[in-house]
Write a structure and sequence with these properties.
Elements: E1 2-5, E2 16-19, H1 22-36, H2 44-53, E3 55-56
Antiparallel strand pairs: 1-2, 1-3
Bound molecules: zinc ion (ZN).
Amino acid sequence: MKQFACGDVVPDCDVAFAGATDDDILAAVAVHATRDHGLVTVPSELVDQVRASIREVA
Ligand SMILES: [Zn+2]
């Protein structure tokens, strides 16, 4: 299982995600970013930041 805390990238956000793969998390983050952070698209820089912040958990 992998986890990502949006707060690692967006300091004021306390939403967290979990998924089996990076891509599962990125898909959920994309929805969250467009709905809750007002992004029209997710820039590749943000994708890189999210990937770098995803943690492997047991
Ligand atoms: Zn967020």
